[in-house]
Amino acid sequence: MKRYIATINQALTVMLVLMPGLALGFDSGSTGADGAFNPTVNTQLQLPPSGIFNFTSVNIPSGVTVTFQKNTTNTPVTILASSNVTIVGALSVSGGPSTNAGAAGDGNLGDDGIPGVGGPGGFDGGRGGLPNATGGTGLGPGGGSGGSSAQNTCFGSPATFGGGGGGFGATGGNSFCSVAGGGPSYGSSVLLPLIGGSGGGGGAGGTNFGGSGGGGGGGAILIAASGTVNVIGPILADGGGSGSSAGSGCGPTGGGGSGGGIRIVATTIAGDGNIFARGGGPGGSCISFGGAGADGRIRLESESFTRTAATNPPFTASAPGTVFVAGFPTLTISSVAGVAAPAAPTGNADITLPASTPNPVTVVFTTTGVPVGNTVRLTVTPASGGITSVISPALTGSTASATASVSVNLSSGPSVLQATTTFTIVAALGDVLAPFAQGERVEKITLVAMVGKPNKAILVTVSGKEFEVPAAVLSAVAGREG
Prior knowledge:
Layout: E1 3-6, E2 10-11, E3 36-37, E4 43-46, E5 52-55, E6 57-60, E7 65-69, E8 77-81, E9 85-87, E10 90-92, E11 101-102, E12 220-231, E13 235-236, E14 245-246, E15 261-270, E16 275-276, E17 297-305, E18 316-318, E19 330-336, E20 339-340, E21 351-353, E22 361-368, E23 377-382, E24 388-391, E25 396-397, E26 402-408, E27 413-424, H1 427-433, E28 442-449, E29 456-461, E30 466-470, H2 471-474
Parallel strand pairs: 1-27, 3-6, 4-7, 5-8, 6-9, 7-10, 8-12, 9-12, 10-13, 11-14, 12-15, 13-16, 15-17, 17-18
Antiparallel strand pairs: 1-21, 2-19, 19-20, 19-22, 22-26, 23-24, 23-27, 25-26, 27-28, 28-29, 29-30
């Protein structure tokens, strides 16, 4: 029997806040490999694995809307241009709404409660509860709480309640009667690291119908141009609203998704087109409704600023900062028994070894941004039989690029490989990550890659508290050197 090995590579990527003084000739770093982008019809671009487009120029004409198909790791959108970016049409990374429920729906009760989908780099809403059941919590670090199915008489008669709004630039709105709390604020006003909005919580189910799901969080986009970014048409990273709910015994509605993140860096920023990262609103209900999603964050950085219009929410501004910082900490299972792991593993038979492959096999790890001297723990979980855990020798090489390997026996049939490493980070980086750890400086990071579950990072604060963060939060800017 052949042996199938599923691997997932965990990339934790973090940007440091660097604010250089005024400089002429801002360089976006675009290689120009993707040429000029001049769509003539509505276009949905498939995000590459890195999330980065290297254009020479961008020109979106009137009447054309550009959206994006998310990649497998749900990175934000990064548009680099070696000259100018002109947006006369529309550019959107907004989150989607949840479906309507009950009598307000399409008659197919099976799709009641489906949450809104987050934009690229944003997070989905929580699912609406089935009849008499609690709604799901919105996804993301600021996900809104699910609506409660417990009967509450805060407005005079027993009722179940809607979900809380997603948080990001501020705390999300509470549901009616404040039964379900809005999600917390997170992230940085400078959008480093770049991240999108969080989903609203799903509404609880009613006595006859389910509640509607929460809206999806707005996505995140970085536009960096060596020349001018001229915004005439809208750039949108709005959160999705929740669907409505109606009918006798209907369920409450979910919370709105929070707005996403928009960062523009250029030599000149011009044009007074709309730049919106607004929170989504709750839908109407026969009983009670969810909370509104919080607004997101907008950051504008340029040497020359001729724009006069406001944004919603209000932007923060500065001279251009460094777009990308090299040396992001990453951990990769690079090969098993000499067979290279795929660049974008799926978690399903990513490596197939011949049945004749002898034990033990060598598993090789590569790291970037992880200090040498640290070790990597490999855990092998076969489809049947005991779990094996092996610790590697110390990483060798340099912090910029290091390797380690272990020898391990693999049983016949599929096995899941999980790699973890823990390392101490510098104080400046710990401060950048503090918003993800309730404001406390992070001292250590554990990178975790697990098949069958979302990848994650565990942040360990100076007081020893641990905060588990979805990989999508911290890998949102993965591969930015490419």
